[in-house]
Design goal:
mainly alpha; 0% strand
Length: 100
């Protein structure tokens, strides 16, 4: 069997197997189309709401520098937490941050 015959046979096999899947996929795409209202809702920008974790990571370096006096002294986790807490509360709008 030559390479051309082999390529032709493989192409035919793949097309015959994939034709049913292709039809099913096309129908699923038609059924799952997004409504105009839902599309508009997705396009509307909402302000980012910070999670405590995101806020903590975003202020961690600043808090470490504050707790260690710009790297002059070692700072433990509790000191960094106390330095970071006001910024985390401001970003998240939370009333309190649990230290655990």
């Amino acid at each position: 069997m030559s390479n051309d015959d082999l390529a032709s046979a493989l192409s035919s096999a793949v097309e015959s197997v994939a034709s049913g899947w292709k039809k099913a996929k096309r129908n699923a795409d038609k059924e799952d189309r997004v409504s105009r209202r839902d599309l508009q809702a997705m396009r509307t920008t909402r302000p980012h709401t910070w999670t405590i974790r995101e806020a903590a990571f975003s202020v961690m370096e600043e808090a470490y520098l504050k707790a260690s006096a710009n790297r002059r002294y070692p700072a433990n986790a509790r000191q960094i937490y106390y330095a970071a807490r006001p910024a985390i509360l401001a970003k998240t709008g939370a009333d309190k941050v649990d230290s655990r």
